[in-house]
């Protein structure tokens, strides 16, 4: 029996990483919000490695934090090891990564949701999205309960039509032994939404005491921890080690000999898997000449002996799994606690979304996370906060938020999704960003706090602290640019000691800092006027000055980019009427309906010639000739 | 594809309360053990109220502890409120009860299992029990993995063929959104095991902030906490309150008006529910004249706002649930986080078990917990430790452990199950025990530590501490019996002040202590020689002396009882050949095959006349005339 169980501004379907951020954003923006999960014990669950951040992903987490999201704080609160990756590769790709305590992360996130005013949490399976006259009006549970809502955010992760695959064994299931969502796919199809079928996989969890760490390389956390959240200046935790080991020829032989039983190759798995997060059988086939692959052994938490075997996700049959894992160095006697598995699930084709993450066809219906064809906790959370903000803006009748590719990795991620679509689980990578030197993890607050504040997710207090920090950075940069160091014995001794050439005329501190061999920290010795500054300020100052030239160049490129982004295309355009466009361009443009010439130019199949045609057409349209 | 994945002494199917105790017992007794769970996140899960102990149940927990089990320690480690119930009713029924933190309890139990030498933990669904020549040989997972084992303990709880029911909505599921076990029932049936279908239910979980506690009665924990485990002399925790409120006429009206939609009455629920843990609709129907029912609001943990609504379990449709809960005093604006539901599941008819919990028909196959037709965490754990011990004894070829009704509530529970069977989920109650004054919770260690030690689950160190305690008790009792208090002004003043009559001749301290108005604590004033003794010793001394008369009487009854228990019936008896037995007795005795005259006498349908016939037959058999 159907009945109305509640009236809300926003209903969020799913309390994974996307759903949590979306729900928190809406509630924090003052909207009456409800978030659903099939199982409340799985709020904020990490069904794969309990690790937050990493290359590109760490950037997303910091951007989420700068906008007022929760993921960074949750990672800080539950981290058991923290490292900055890519230290050797330069600050553009420095990436923060935390190994977290999976159980504590879930409890932390559930606690935050429970404590959030305006937010109700509800266990139940949403089976239907209610739409009237092209506008969303609510959701329905399998029990018949209808929750009316002005906006709805879909964040169903890998649950829609979930199917777990372990070798020949296949059964309906969500991740981590949860119920799958059995009905929502059909409801979305009835609404005319195009669905895709993707898959992802996870390795086995093994018992710590069955491993021989003496054969592995220990991986310790950073001595001084950089927190994820800009609200945390420092973070002190008792860190646990991870370990690095390798597959062997034997591993590869076992895999090759059992490829005829690998669901990935027998056709049992139909969903498309992530190319950049391949299973081990995939790696062994695609990189046939590689004699070994890295395997990281990472703890699932502080108070558990479960360990994650990173790099060896698989859907091979269990008997093959056992042999395969036991052939890895140090895993000779490994005791599997949970076998590896793959999961297939339904997701939407993200080309159906606007850059706001609203469905083009259904007003008030937003979508975020793995359901949009992505993979990864951080990718999910990044979309979640944007979908949440925009659902709130929609309800309030205010302008929605779109971050562009020059503002944030979040912008890159969403622009890629809604402009290019994806035919495999999409994950962020630093190589996807054109303006990497601008989109650094260290300056995410400088890029986005202002926006978070304007939207209402950054408190006055935090905003003022941020302005102070900004001023400190500017002041210090200015001071360094103004301070001239005169040549002296002391100074030149210092320079030579640091492998730097001595000076004979006065040189600005900023110039010295640009020398690769001199760090801001080292320069303290010849910089007696230096003020005492927080870690984050010093970091910023150093990068801004050291890379000033490159940064300037990228800022110029961004100006060019912005010009095309700002050439908005009216939404009534009928591309089929524009002569001169190629057939493919007409079709793609009509499908994707880009918001700007910039976006149009990134659509595959739309050529520079097509863009010229479009630009001319736009000029004419403006002149009122159309 | 089938393959052998491991060789074990004992395989335990299930890591709920029964499975955890069974697995720990086996591993601690030195056997190579593996325990399976469909989902490792649910080890030690409490799908209903996260409360351990209570009337009768508290006794079981202490007995488990005295035998070397884990439940008492887990409860102590995760308690958030502790009380002794029935304080007014005398020490026989004093019952310890702890409200625990559900999430922490699970993590604690998983940690203990992970840290236990000889024990492997494995996620997987057992689909088949392997038996050869009437002896168990192992189990098979759905992935084809075969784990050979000399003994197997079934502890599958409410997962077999699990079906969740909320009003008209029914779906396959284990408790708490877990996968059900879909195949094992068929495997058991193929082995000739008779299955039954039971059901149980749970109320909604609601958000703390939506409740009006000012309308409820607060329930605080005890000022001085008595721990569950005999290894803990004291326990200091920061306790949280619970609350008492009531249903209203309106609640009952809503329920009555919706009985036509109650699965319990429409026939949708076929499984038999627990009479002593009825759903609210059941209570409203059965006690139609009661104007209100008690409702306890109890926290699900320390760091969560989820609250349990004890007393209002239901399978009514969700719309009725909402109205019904909102009609309870203080719940007018209640926000449901998880709706109430009932679950139906397959269990075995426990008459197929020996008192050792081994299947009569299949050697090496044991069964414990909810699968045996019981309900409750403590009942499950109690059976679990016995099944575990006996699986170990079976593998070692040693004598199995059977506790009789005079030794422990565990004995009462198991004897009831295997002698009388049950046609509804069985739970322990103090009224089920004949020798309540002996089977107290305070003396569980005195009753059972010796046995736990002999079996090998109690360490030498703990045993020696226990012997010390026992000696302290005996010494103090003796001292009290010997110490004569002479009449004096001081003594008589003390007596009169405590509402007790003055003495004119010397009186032993033990005699004074027998006066109801005088406590051991109070008597300190006139007992200058009193040694400084631990809380638990003082408690024991007081009860043993105060109730000495009654205790003696029960000990005599137990002697009588033991006589019949010791009259063993050989297992080759053919009851159909014994003339003089009633037809019903013949049939029942053949089915149950009691181990002793005592057990035979408790079988319903076996009359005192039948017992006389049996006794005579036994005498003759002994004389060798048969
Ligand atoms: C086996 C496995 C392996 C993975 N491996 C990797 C990897 O190697 N690398 C990587 O980056 N990422 C990996 N991931 C992906 C990562 O877990 C997800 O990207 C991330 O969790 C997605 O977040 P989400 O918020 O979109 O969805 P989820 O975290 O899946 O959350 C979905 C939420 O929606 C709820 N829900 C779903 N349907 C309904 C409904 N109908 N009604 C009510 N509630 C509903 C669920 O209860 C849940 O709360 C893996 C995931 C799985 C399952
Ligand atoms: C909804 C609900 C309400 C309840 N209400 C009450 C109540 O009011 N009062 C009360 O006293 N008790 C109640 N109970 C009962 C109490 O929860 C159980 O009695 C107790 O948990 C049983 O413990 P157990 O160890 O037998 O099984 P469970 O705790 O259910 O554990 C079963 C274990 O077996 C595993 N398992 C099952 N099948 C397989 C398989 N094929 N392969 C591998 N692993 C398997 C599971 O993963 C799990 O680990 C309720 C239970 C439920 C679900």
Automatic annotation (TrEMBL), chains A, B:
Binding residues annotated for FAD, in chain numbering: 14-19
Cofactor(s), by name: FAD
Residue numbers binding NAD(+): 273-287
Family assignment from sequence similarity: Belongs to the MnmG family.
HAMAP family membership: MnmG_GidA (MF_00129)
Listed NCBIfam families: mnmG_gidA (TIGR00136)
Protein name as it appears in the record: tRNA uridine 5-carboxymethylaminomethyl modification enzyme MnmG
Natural source organism: Caldicellulosiruptor naganoensis
Taxonomic path: Bacteria, Bacillati, Bacillota, Bacillota incertae sedis, Caldicellulosiruptorales
């Amino acid at each position: 029996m159907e009945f109305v169980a509640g009236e809300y501004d926003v209903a969020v379907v799913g309390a994974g990483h996307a759903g949590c951020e979306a729900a928190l954003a809406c509630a924090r923006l003052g909207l009456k919000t409800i978030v659903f999960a099939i199982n409340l014990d799985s709020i904020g669950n990490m069904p794969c490695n309990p690790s937050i951040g990493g290359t590109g992903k760490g950037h997303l987490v910091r951007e989420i934090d700068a906008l007022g999201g929760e993921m960074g704080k949750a990672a800080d609160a539950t981290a058991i090891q923290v490292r900055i990756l890519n230290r050797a590769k330069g600050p553009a790709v420095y990436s923060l990564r935390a190994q977290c305590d999976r159980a504590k992360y879930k409890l932390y996130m559930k606690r935050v949701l429970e404590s959030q005013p305006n937010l109700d949490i509800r266990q139940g399976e949403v089976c239907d999205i209610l739409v009237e006259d092209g506008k969303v009006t609510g959701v329905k549970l399998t029990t018949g309960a209808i929750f009316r809502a002005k906006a709805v955010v879909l964040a169903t992760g890998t649950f829609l039509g979930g199917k777990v695959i372990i070798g020949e064994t296949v059964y309906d299931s969500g991740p981590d032994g949860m119920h799958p969502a059995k009905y929502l796919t059909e409801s979305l199809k009835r609404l005319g939404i195009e669905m895709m079928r993707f898959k992802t996989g996870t390795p086995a969890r093994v018992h710590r005491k069955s491993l021989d760490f003496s054969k592995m390389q220990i991986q310790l956390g950073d001595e001084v921890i950089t927190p994820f959240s800009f609200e945390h200046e420092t973070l002190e935790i008792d860190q646990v080690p991870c370990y690095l080991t390798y597959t062997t020829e034997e591993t590869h032989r076992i895999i090759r000999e059992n490829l005829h039983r690998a669901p990935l190759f027998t056709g049992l798995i139909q969903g498309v898997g992530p190319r950049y997060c391949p299973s081990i059988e995939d790696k062994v086939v695609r990189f046939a000449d590689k004699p070994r692959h890295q395997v990281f052994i990472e703890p699932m938490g502080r108070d558990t002996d479960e360990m994650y075997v990173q790099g060896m996700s698989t859907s091979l049959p269990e008997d093959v799994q056992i042999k395969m894992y036991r052939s890895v160095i140090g895993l000779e006697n490994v005791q599997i606690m949970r076998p590896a598995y793959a999961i297939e699930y339904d997701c939407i084709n993200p080309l159906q979304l606007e850059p706001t993450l609203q469905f083009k066809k259904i007003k008030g219906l937003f979508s975020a996370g793995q359901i949009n064809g992505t993979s990864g906790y951080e990718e999910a959370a990044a979309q979640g906060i944007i979908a949440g903000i925009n659902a709130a803006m929609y309800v309030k009748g205010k302008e929605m938020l779109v971050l562009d590719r020059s503002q944030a990795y979040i912008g890159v991620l969403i622009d890629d999704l809604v402009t290019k679509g994806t035919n495999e689980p999409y994950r962020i990578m630093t190589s996807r960003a054109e303006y990497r030197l601008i989109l650094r993890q260290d300056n995410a607050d400088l890029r986005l706090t202002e926006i978070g504040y304007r939207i209402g997710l950054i408190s006055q207090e935090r905003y003022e602290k941020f302005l102070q920090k900004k001023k400190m950075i500017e002041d210090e940069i200015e001071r360094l640019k103004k301070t001239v160091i005169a040549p002296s014995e002391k100074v030149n001794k210092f320079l030579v000691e640091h492998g730097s050439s001595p000076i004979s005329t006065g040189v600005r501190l900023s110039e010295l800092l640009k020398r690769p061999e001199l760090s801001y920290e080292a320069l303290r010795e010849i910089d007696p006027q230096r003020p005492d500054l927080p870690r984050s300020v010093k970091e910023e100052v150093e990068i801004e000055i050291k890379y000033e030239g490159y940064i300037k160049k990228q800022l110029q490129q961004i100006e060019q980019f912005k010009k095309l982004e700002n050439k908005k295309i009216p939404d009534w355009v009928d591309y089929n009427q524009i002569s001169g466009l190629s057939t493919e361009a007409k079709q793609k443009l009509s499908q994707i309906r880009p918001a700007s010439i910039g976006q149009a130019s990134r659509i595959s199949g739309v050529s520079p010639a097509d863009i010229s045609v479009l630009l001319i057409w736009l000029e004419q349209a403006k002149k009122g000739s159309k």
